[in-house]
């Protein structure tokens, strides 16, 4: 049978004409073209098995067929399989090389990508852009710049890629210098600057650039609207939106999000109703806006009205139930989902924060889903809260197996988990494995040392962090003050507390004042603690009053203790522990009548102290 007839027979078998990419093709369309389209379509849907089946069934492949298969594997993150196909291509063209190069770059395999790049004899601008984009995506902005400068010919995409790269890493001045250097500034290059300014919050710089643009497209107007929105200038955004000569669904959605972002739900809903055409992104944005503003019922109503739903739609409503701690309905909704993704499982795991979260994690594995950063950080956090060290170590093994041991966020979660479970040595080992430590990683280790009472080690860690060029935040100082409180370092505690505002421009929060009050109380400096409390610009959290009351009892300052207890009971009239502690204070002073009165109040309010229980 001739090849063409074999292909036609095969096409009939796989019924490719049912796919959108193959519709409207005449019966005379080249069958090989249809098969190539089928491979592309299957890979885009994530059905790489069927894509490969189609590929293998084609008796005589052209270079386009091979390229479609390489791109399919790359699209689905199967870089090893892509390389096997690439190596087997009988006559590679520039598209083959570029597809493989992009695959390596997207997977962070920059060395392999660069080796391949150097082997290309006749590099076109697409090859150069792919390599530069790979460097930018993986944080190698200096290498990207070197390659950019070495390009023999640059197009608009080249300039856009490197400008966006500088904005991504906060290097606004470098982005501006490059923009000024561009001899021919297309609308794409202008839009890259506008979008960068919008993300960085440079509202006026963005508007000045927008005004002088020789030509604007819909994306230009939309970027400027987004910039005003990010700066909280909703009215200016609306005014610009009304001036737009032409609006597409993205512009409408951006304006709607501006209202949602600034809490103007009614205005957003009105604009949503006025939209001439709503795509699924617009629907999802409106639903998500309702969820973020606590209007789950409105979100559910919109969800039911949607002409078509995707996983994002389902996940938004699921998130709404979880935010309201309605895990019963969240579970029902989760079970009803026609298709789940990693985000769906992560939302449920975060919602439970209990043993059920660990069970869900196992089910996620069994269902064939691959945990991501969000999954690991949530599950590891649960292990820490529940102090289930065995589970934590098992999850740590999964982290290594899947390849997240270089992820700073995941490793920081492991530091906190091991610390909570009492294994400071393992926490320190996890911290040492973090190569690129950010403020979250340092805070995790500082807090770990603090809660284990290692004040000297905590302060040494803090000094190392400062020498490394990082600036502390509120969490850092909370760890430092906790460490000082546990070790009774009053002078050092005051020194660190005062440095927050003086050296780092950080305004202390109630938690920081609570640490100081706790330290003064533990040290018997009750008068100083009470004077500080009277002068506080913020309200102390309840646990700080409880700590002060406990210190009053230990140091037998009953007058202050009585005042603190009554103050706390005025705020928390159902705090059983405070009634019991106040009764004990009266009993310690021999005031049996007052102690009996407090016990009678407890009985009258039908309050009962819960019995203690052990983790063992």
TrEMBL record:
GO annotation, biological process: system development
Keywords, in A-Z order: Repeat
Entry superkingdom: Eukaryota
Lineage: Eukaryota, Viridiplantae, Streptophyta, Embryophyta, Tracheophyta
One Pfam match: PPR
InterPro entries on file: E_motif (IPR046848), PPR_At4g14850-like_plant (IPR046960), PPR_rpt (IPR002885), TPR-like_helical_dom_sf (IPR011990)
Name of this protein: Chlororespiratory reduction 4
PROSITE patterns membership: PPR
Organism annotation: Ilex paraguariensis
């Amino acid at each position: 049978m001739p090849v063409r007839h074999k292909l036609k027979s095969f096409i009939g078998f796989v019924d490719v004409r049912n796919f959108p990419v193959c519709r409207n093709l005449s019966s005379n369309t080249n069958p090989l073209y249809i098969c190539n389209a089928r491979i592309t379509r299957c890979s885009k849907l994530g059905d790489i098995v069927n894509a490969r089946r189609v590929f293998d069934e084609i008796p005589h492949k052209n270079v386009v067929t091979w390229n479609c298969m390489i791109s399919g594997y790359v699209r689905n993150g199967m870089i090893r399989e892509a390389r096997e196909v690439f190596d087997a291509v009988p006559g590679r063209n520039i598209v083959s090389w570029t597809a493989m190069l992009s695959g390596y770059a997207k997977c962070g395999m920059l060395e392999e990508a660069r080796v391949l790049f150097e082997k290309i004899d006749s590099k076109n601008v697409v090859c150069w852009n792919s390599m530069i984009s790979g460097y930018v995506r993986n944080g190698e902005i200096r290498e990207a710049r070197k390659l950019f400068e070495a390009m023999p010919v640059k197009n608009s995409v080249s300039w856009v890629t490197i400008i966006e790269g500088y904005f991504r890493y906060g290097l606004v001045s470098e982005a501006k210098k490059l923009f000024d250097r561009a001899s021919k500034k297309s609308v794409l290059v202008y839009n890259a600057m506008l979008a960068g300014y919008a993300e960085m919050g440079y509202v006026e710089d963005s508007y000045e650039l927008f005004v002088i643009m020789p030509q604007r497209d819909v994306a230009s107007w939309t970027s400027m609207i987004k910039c005003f929105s990010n700066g909280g200038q909703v009215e200016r955004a609306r005014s610009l939106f009304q001036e737009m000569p032409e609006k597409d669904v993205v512009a409408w959605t951006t304006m709607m999000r501006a209202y949602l972002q600034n809490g103007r739900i009614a205005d957003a809903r009105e604009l949503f109703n006025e939209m001439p055409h709503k795509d699924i992104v617009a629907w999802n944005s409106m639903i998500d806006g309702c969820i973020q503003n606590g209007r789950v019922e409105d979100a559910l109503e919109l969800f039911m009205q949607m002409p078509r739903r995707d996983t994002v739609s389902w996940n938004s409503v699921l998130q709404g139930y979880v935010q309201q701690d309605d895990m019963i309905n969240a579970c029902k909704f989760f079970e009803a989902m026609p298709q789940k993704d990693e985000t769906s499982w992560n939302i449920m795991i975060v919602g439970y924060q209990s043993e059920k979260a660990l069970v869900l994690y196992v089910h996620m594995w069994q269902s064939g889903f691959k945990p991501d950063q969000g999954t690991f950080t949530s599950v590891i956090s649960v292990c820490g809260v529940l102090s289930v060290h065995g589970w934590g170590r098992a999850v740590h093994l999964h982290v290594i197996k899947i390849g997240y041991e270089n992820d700073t966020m995941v490793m920081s979660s492991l530091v906190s988990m091991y610390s909570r479970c009492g294994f400071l040595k393992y926490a320190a080992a996890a911290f040492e494995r973090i190569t690129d430590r950010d403020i979250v990683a340092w805070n995790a280790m500082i807090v770990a040392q603090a809660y284990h009472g290692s004040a000297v080690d905590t302060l040494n860690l803090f000094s190392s962090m400062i020498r490394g060029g990082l600036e502390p935040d509120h969490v850092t100082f909370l760890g430092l003050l906790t460490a000082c409180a546990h070790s009774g370092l009053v002078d050092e505690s005051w020194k660190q507390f005062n440095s927050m505002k003086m050296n780092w421009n950080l305004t202390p929060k109630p938690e920081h004042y609570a640490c100081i009050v706790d330290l003064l109380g533990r040290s018997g400096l009750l008068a100083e603690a009470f004077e500080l409390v009277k002068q506080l610009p913020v309200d102390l959290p309840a646990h700080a009053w409880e700590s002060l009351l406990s210190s009053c009892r230990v140091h037998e300052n009953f007058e202050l203790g009585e005042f603190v207890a009554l103050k706390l009971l005025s705020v928390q009239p159902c705090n059983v522990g405070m009634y019991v502690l106040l009764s004990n204070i009266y009993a310690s002073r021999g005031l049996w009548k007052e102690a009996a009165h407090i016990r009678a109040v407890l009985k009258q309010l039908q309050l009962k102290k819960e019995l203690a229980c052990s983790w063992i």
